[in-house]
Amino acid sequence: MDIPLQAILSQALLGLNNGAFYALLSLGLAVIFGMLNVVNFAHGAFYMLGAFVALLGYDQLGRWLGDESIHMSFWAALIIGPIVVGLLGVLIEKTMLRRLYQVDHLYGLLLTFGLALIFEGVLSNYFNMAGEPYNAKPEILEGAINLGFMVFPKYRLFSIVLSLSVCFGVWYLIEKTKLGSYLRAGTENPDVTRAFGIDVPSLRTLTYFLGVALAGLAGVVAAPIYSVSPKMGSDLIIIVFAVVVIGGMGSIMGAILTGIALGLLEGLVKVFYPPLANTVIFIVMALVLLWRPSGLFGKEN
Fold first, then answer.
1. Which of 113, 119, 180, 245 has CB 3.0 to 4.6 Å from 41, enough for a Cys bridge?
2. What's the rounded Cα separation, in Å, for the pair 33 and 214?
């Protein structure tokens, strides 16, 4: 098979774009499971809600304020979207999830799965399931840039840089800073942490806020690329769980590196054998689980 190098590089870059999304979404999921032991099946719904915050802020904010000329800009949505989604997560954590920390993971999974169905069902009553366009892409990110081997959209390049910067920034926060050490201590040894006068429940709430805010941020970043629809989260959550399982449940760096690698693999498979592209991630997951059930970066029991 004679495939031009240009086609391979082009698909690799598009795969990196998907991989950056996988990494950003998987990171939030890994943070929540690794530090709270909660299988957050609502993660895709929080991703979807982040996109809807951006969409509604742009389309409806002026109507709500009585001035049709007012729109929430994309740059504002990058900040407001994750905060709104994160605050919703705080409400859920304080009223529901904190009752489940000491019981089997299954209860948290069932609760968050139910919440995901509720969010999707409510929004399905008001919005088109086929999706709605988000037209607030900044002018500076319009158009494309010539990379030599292909002409690549500026916005997609921006989304790669932003997603990977946030991923490695969060890894540094959790693994290398004093706040991160408090967050890890509050989940690994809560009794000892309390003995030092640290408010463990607040640390857990902050952890959940951070995890779901990352999902909300991914939704805002994805909104200009994909149609914003109530099902956009459920279409992606299975892939995100596969990424986290392959990387190792709870492994922060594992989620990041695996997300990037699987996005690249998916892109390259589209060049060499397109029919396999939609299933290659799950094939890799099956092989990894057979060889190393704890995942590539997970801790062996």
1. 113
2. 14
3-class SS of residue 132: strand
DSSP symbol at 232: T
> How crowded is residue 125: how many other Cβ atoms within 10 Å of its Cβ?
7
Integer Cα distance of 285 and 281 in angstroms: 6
pLDDT digits (tens, 9 = 90+) for 160-192: 999 999 999 999 998 889 888 888 877 777 777
Q: What is the pLDDT of residue 194?
A: 79
Q: Please tell me the predicted confidence (pLDDT) of residue 300.
A: 62
DSSP secondary structure code for residue 197 in this structure: T
Pairing of strands 151-153, 144-146: antiparallel
Q: Are 253 and 297 in contact (CB under 8 A)?
A: yes
Query: How far is 267 from 265, CA to CA, in rounded Å?
Result: 5
Task: Indicate whether this model's pTM tops 0.85.
Answer: yes
Q: Are 275 and 31 in contact (CB under 8 A)?
A: no
Nearest-angstrom CA–CA distance, 126 and 265: 37
User: Considering only CA atoms, which of 88, 107, 56 is closest in space to residue 212?
Assistant: 88
For 67, counting Cβ atoms within 10 Å of its Cβ (0-12 exposed, 13-18 middle, 19+ buried), the class is exposed
Dist. CA 73–CA 31, nearest whole Å: 29
